[in-house]
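Translate structure to sequence.
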């Protein structure tokens, strides 16, 4: 069970919402923007590893994103249901991610094994790791001096409501997904399967 999930459970949030938010923030629309040019051009320096403080800062940024997004999603879930929460993922989550990036002094985004949003491509430094479907937290140094992380997300049971086999997805959710993500490829996953990753780029580590 990953650090992100454990911290969320300890916060007292309902389990179903915790897992829904994890799926949304990692796999739907945390950040629609492409990585900045400096990050896009960077490559991994093999044999070097970020400091422990840099790793902690990157994990803290992921937790901060969850805290902000979960509050907004809880409001939408309670008032209008999961269809409305999907709309929040699509329309509001990018701004929330941008705010967290600015507050934390880094870049945070996500990519997937199969993309829901075609804009959610991995930065260049992470492309090979994504192709290899790395399924453990990976911390690296880049040739521009930045620290970076690729943090895998495994599909939890409750995430199947948006990412499972299409025949198991409720009609109201299918309707929203078709409306907001017409090119969606992010269904057909099984519980426990690797769904995607958070990527984080931390300057001046």
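Result:
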């Amino acid at each position: 069970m990953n650090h992100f999930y454990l911290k969320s459970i300890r916060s007292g949030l309902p389990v179903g919402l915790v897992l829904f938010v994890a799926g949304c923030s990692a796999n739907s629309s945390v950040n629609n923007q492409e990585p900045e040019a400096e990050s896009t051009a960077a490559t991994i320096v093999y044999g070097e590893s970020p400091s422990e403080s840099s790793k902690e800062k990157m994990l803290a940024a992921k937790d901060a994103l969850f805290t902000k997004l979960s509050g907004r999603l809880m409001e939408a879930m309670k008032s209008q249901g999961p269809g409305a929460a999907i709309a929040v993922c699509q329309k509001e989550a990018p701004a929330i991610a941008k705010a967290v990036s600015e507050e934390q002094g880094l870049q945070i985004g996500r990519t997937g094994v199969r993309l829901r949003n075609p804009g959610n491509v991995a930065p260049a430094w992470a492309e090979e790791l994504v192709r290899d479907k790395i399924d453990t937290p990976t911390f690296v140094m880049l040739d521009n001096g930045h620290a970076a992380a690729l943090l895998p997300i495994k599909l939890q049971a409750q995430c199947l409501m948006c990412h499972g086999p299409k025949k198991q997805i409720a009609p109201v959710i299918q309707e929203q997904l078709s409306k907001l993500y017409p090119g969606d490829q992010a269904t057909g996953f099984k519980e426990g399967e690797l769904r995607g990753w958070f990527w984080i780029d931390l300057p001046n580590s």
